[in-house]
């Protein structure tokens, strides 16, 4: 059997695990650390896998930065500029750019946020570079992120990551939730998407 398209690395193959991974998101308070969130291993909360800096840290609206556990930048996420055009558009586009060893940026995904003033369907879809399907989108958000009850699915309906799985001690805190990432899925990409959702819904990354 060949490798499934959904197992292709999007940011880097080093973030694709051969087994299912459960990670924990801890939101940082704005008053202390400028907001954003930290992602740790579920079995070792001291082991930081990713950090996300929001506009409270960066000082720039509509811009996020995903870092690895060492603090090195992995992914820059920003909303497409042009407010007047965007106000009349069906979608608001968020674009994620990875960094190479020389610091150059490369587009790796685009998340389309429906403009609720224009469309009724609030489905969010994501396209990646390189493309992993023959449709005009590769992944979709199902569920409602603010309730921490949603999933990222591929074009075949397979869940590639689940946000807010049923773990009692985690669900008890609004600043703590877990994310299950399926085997072969790029974890850096998943948390780039989660960072974007966090900002869209006005949570820890938003000023």
What report would you give on this structure?
The structure is a single chain. It is globular and about 40 Å long. The termini are far apart. It has a 12-stranded antiparallel beta barrel. With 207 residues, the chain is an alpha+beta fold.
Low-confidence stretches: 1-6
Which percent range fits the helix content? 10-25%
Please state the average pLDDT score.
Answer: 83
Rg result: 16 Å
> How big a fraction of the residues is strand?
35-45%
How many individual β-strands? 12
> Whole-Å distance between the termini?
47 Å
Count of separate DSSP helical elements: 5
Structural class based on helices, strands and sheet pairing: alpha+beta
Strand order of the largest sheet: 1-2-3-4-5-6-7-8-9-10-11-12
Taken from the alpha-carbon principal axes, the silhouette is globular
**What summary fits the major beta sheet?**
12 strands, antiparallel, barrel
Sketch the topology as an H/E string, one letter per element: EHEEHEEHEEEEEEHEH
Highlighted features:
207 residues; globular; alpha+beta; 12 strands; 5 helices
Write the layout of secondary structure elements.
Layout: E1 21-27, H1 30-33, E2 37-41, E3 44-53, H2 55-58, E4 63-68, E5 73-79, H3 83-88, E6 91-99, E7 105-114, E8 124-128, E9 139-144, E10 149-154, E11 159-163, H4 168-171, E12 176-181, H5 187-200
Antiparallel strand pairs: 1-2, 1-12, 2-3, 3-4, 4-5, 5-6, 6-7, 7-8, 8-9, 9-10, 10-11, 11-12
